[in-house]
Design goal:
Largest sheet: 4 strands, antiparallel
Number of domains: 1
Number of helices: 3
Strand content: 15-25%
Order of helices and strands: EEEEHEHHEE
Shape: globular
Strand order of the largest sheet: 1-2-3-4
Helix content: 10-25%
Radius of gyration: 13 Å
Structural class: alpha+beta
Length: 135
């Protein structure tokens, strides 16, 4: 179970779905718009904070398990995956939830564990090909 309250001084301590890497994530409401700050080693990724509610709503509409499909920004995301939805012009944001050019990908790796920690989703935790569904 993750620790932390999701603030800059007490970030959520999370693990990737396969459990192979740990990272921290917190919500920064002082930014406009509010952002999620994900720290993976020395790499900082930022996502629009609307991603949490928007992803949960989309997962509810899917009604079943959805593959995560995590991919770097430079690589295409497989259709029908969380990663593809996080970049799609069809999502509520109209494109990338990732905010830092060159580091906008990996939505399907770092956001799903947060939704699980918040009690909004269920994840598989296999070595590869993980998926999630709304609860």
């Amino acid at each position: 179970m993750p620790t932390g309250t999701g603030t800059a001084t007490d970030p959520w301590m999370l693990s990737t779905p396969p459990g192979s890497s740990s990272y921290t994530l917190y919500r920064d409401d002082t930014a406009t718009p509010p952002i999620l700050v994900c720290q993976v080693g020395s790499t900082k990724l930022t996502y629009d904070a609307r991603a949490v509610d928007d992803l949960h709503t989309w997962l509810l509409a899917q009604g079943d398990w959805v593959p995560l499909g995590a991919a770097d920004e430079q690589k295409p995301a497989a259709d029908g995956t969380v990663e593809a939805w996080g970049r799609s012009p069809e999502n509520p944001l109209g494109g990338w939830y990732g905010l830092r050019k060159g580091y906008r990908g990996r939505f399907g790796m770092y956001l799903p564990p947060l939704l699980e920690a918040l009690g909004l989703a269920e994840l598989t935790h296999d070595a590869r090909n993980n998926k999630m569904r709304a609860v």
